[in-house]
Write a structure and sequence with these properties.
The chain is α/β, with parallel strands linked by helices and 570 residues long. The protein has three domains: 3-179, Rossmann fold; 189-342, TPP-binding domain (Rossmann fold); 357-532, Thiamin diphosphate (ThDP)-binding fold, Pyr/PP domains (Rossmann fold), CATH 3.40.50. 41% of the residues lie in helices and 16% in strands. The chain is built from 20 helices and 20 strands. Strands 3-2-4-5-7-6 form a six-stranded parallel β-sheet, sandwiched between helices. It is globular and about 70 Å long. The model has no long low-confidence stretch (mean pLDDT 89). InterPro entries: DHS-like_NAD/FAD-binding_dom (IPR029035), POXB-like (IPR047211), THDP-binding (IPR029061), Thiamin_PyroP_enz_cen_dom (IPR012000), Thiamin_PyroP_enz_TPP-bd_dom (IPR012001), TPP-bd_CS (IPR000399), TPP_enzyme_TPP-bd (IPR011766), TPP_POXB-like (IPR047212).
Length: 570
């Protein structure tokens, strides 16, 4: 019996082991939704309250699992809502498939109700972008879209007029899922030998670990230990080796540590493992250090820092060959490592005092310390953009047995809750903690009820300081006076209760500890901890040139404004 094209589409998704589709049904996508209904025992449809949450959750699933994330919406307004999450997937280089509805073919190009030119709208975000125009090849195009999303580590977008999937197709389509395999580029032996020589000759080698090292964490760690090389993690790569590793210097950049910044300024050889780190002001000055860069993407080699040796290859393969080609350790001198470790010890002594702050409202440093001390070793963290990012970068110690996701390159506020939903759906037996600023959480808070609906025991922590705190510091660093950063306070705990979850308010460190302990014990429903936190500035480990000038300008303008105010009132 001939299948509907929509049913064939769903068969292809099943072949590719798609387990979840995030979205909302609606008229221009309902034929595809009906086909998903028929296969609901194999693919779960996760109904969200806003399409942006669907695409952010699909992107988060791809980040967490390495597998394809799938989201779905009607055409027009629903599709437009999805752009933000799809850009997050694009910029963090993860495979996502977006299925978008469209008006029936007989109404196309007539400015029909909700007709939007989605192929044009999504042209910049997609590595594969097609308007379906016939029924017979729909399954083949879906198959090709998924293959391309995997091959190019990006977003595939299919716009599907709703009358086409309803039609029947006679031919049975066999997808390419079972035969698909990504291959690693071959390693150039001459470049490998040059890289080995650079490591042997260096006095102060330093590694920068990126997300590209995700599947080689233990191998990279062993190589760095063996060769006495300190390392810095980019924020997306946090936990790949482990923040408590003795060779770790923490993160670098605005959210980083002073030891990491100083090591960057003193190194004579930078090894870049799977990273396209964008903040070049925090890298060594070109010419002061040589560089070995390993990446599966040729376009990343030399993009941020001049590469003396570029290896377009799998990191595991490179390390294996470096180890097998040498009879002795490449870099036996541990002098630079020990100097860096002493620097880290001094930094940690300062950090310990911060972690022990006992204040009202709660000190963010102490709040994150409480999370550190209580979170199980298999916890998944979903972190929002803003001061939640800053404090987690510096005060959250993530281990290789945990997972840590955020919107690293797009930096979109509102990513933590969708990420937590995706995490709990994919890893139901693991604890999930999301940390959100009050400004960020307010952008997606309606989908807390999605976690209620699916009985997901998440812990959502809202850092409530009634302001856009990170923007406060950005304005100051730019030398501007603060404007329009204050937020109207809201009782987020009451909101959580009203949604059917558990809401807890914490205004002191002791109350937060009690709230967290209670939250770990809650089953079958999400918890929201409304944590009132002090407005502490998460200053960079090192304030660089332009920032220093900006803070000075802000200070002088602030004093002028205060003087005017005092003169006026006297």
């Amino acid at each position: 019996m001939a299948q509907k094209a929509s049913e064939q589409l769903v068969d292809v998704l099943i072949d590719w082991h798609v387990k979840h589709v995030y979205g909302l049904p609606g008229d221009s996508i309902d034929t595809t939704v009906d086909a998903l209904r028929k296969q609901q025992d194999q693919i779960g449809f996760v109904q969200v309250r806003h399409e942006e949450v669907a695409s952010l959750a699909a992107a988060a699933e791809a980040k967490l699992t390495g597998k394809l994330g799938v989201c779905l919406s009607i055409g027009g307004p629903g599709a437009i809502h999805m752009l933000n999450g799809l850009y997050d997937a694009k910029m963090d280089h993860v495979p996502v498939l977006a299925l978008l509805g469209q008006v029936d073919t007989q109404f196309l190009n007539e400015e029909y109700f909700q007709e939007v030119n989605t192929p044009q709208l999504f042209a910049d975000v997609a590595v594969y972008n097609k308007l379906i125009s016939a029924t017979d090849n729909l399954a083949e195009i879906v198959d090709e879209a998924i293959r391309t999303a995997y091959e190019k580590h990006g977003v595939a977008v299919l716009t599907i007029p709703d009358n086409l999937p309803e039609q029947r197709v006679s031919d049975h389509y066999i997808s390419s899922a079972s035969s698909f395999q990504l291959t690693s580029p071959q390693i150039d032996d001459n470049r490998l030998n040059t890289a080995a020589k650079l490591i042997r000759d260096s006095k102060k080698p330093l590694a920068l670990i990126g997300l590209g090292a995700k599947k080689a964490g233990s191998q990279v760690a062993a190589f760095l230990e063996q060769n006495h090389i300190p390392f810095i993690s980019t924020l997306p790569a946090k936990g790949i080796i482990g923040d408590s590793h003795p060779n770790s210097l923490g993160n670098v950049g605005k959210l980083g540590t002073k030891p990491a910044y100083e090591a960057m300024q003193n190194t004579d050889l930078l090894l870049m493992f799977g990273t396209n780190y964008p903040y070049t002001a925090y890298l060594p000055k070109p010419g002061t250090a040589k560089s070995i860069q390993i990446n599966t993407s040729a376009s990343a080699i030399g993009k941020r820092y001049p590469a003396d040796v570029g290896l377009v290859a799998d990191i595991k393969d490179v390390i294996k060959q470096l180890n097998s080609s040498e009879t002795t350790i490449l870099h036996p001198d541990d002098g630079f490592l020990k100097a860096c470790q002493e620097n880290v010890a001094n930094w940690n002594r300062w950090m310990t005092g911060k972690r022990e702050l006992d204040s009202k409202p709660v000190a963010p440093e102490a709040l994150f310390n409480d999370i550190n001390e209580t979170a199980p070793l298999n916890t998944i963290y979903s972190i929002d953009v803003g001061t939640a990012t800053s404090w987690s970068a510096r005060f959250l110690n993530v281990s290789p047995t945990q997972k840590f996701i955020l919107s690293s390159y797009l930096g979109t506020m509102g990513c933590a809750l969708p990420g937590a939903i995706a995490a709990k759906i994919n890893y139901p037996d693991r604890p999930v903690i999301s940390v959100n600023g009050d400004g960020a959480f307010a952008m997606v808070m309606q989908d807390f009820i999605t976690a209620v609906k699916y009985k997901l025991p998440l812990i959502n922590i809202v850092l409530n300081n009634s302001k856009l705190a990170f923007i406060e510091y950005e304005q100051q660093a730019a030398g501007q006076l603060n404007y329009q950063i204050d937020l109207q306070d809201m009782d987020y705990a009451k909101f959580a209760d009203a949604a059917g979850g558990v809401g807890i308010t914490a205004k002191t460190s002791e109350e937060f500890k009690n709230a967290l302990n209670r939250a770990y014990r809650v089953q079958n429903m999400p918890v929201l901890i409304n944590a009132y936190v002090s407005d502490d500035a998460p200053l960079p480990g090192k304030i660089v040139g332009q920032e220093a000038k900006g803070y000075m300008k802000f200070g002088s303008q602030y004093l002028k404004e205060e003087k005017k105010y005092l003169n006026y009132h006297h």
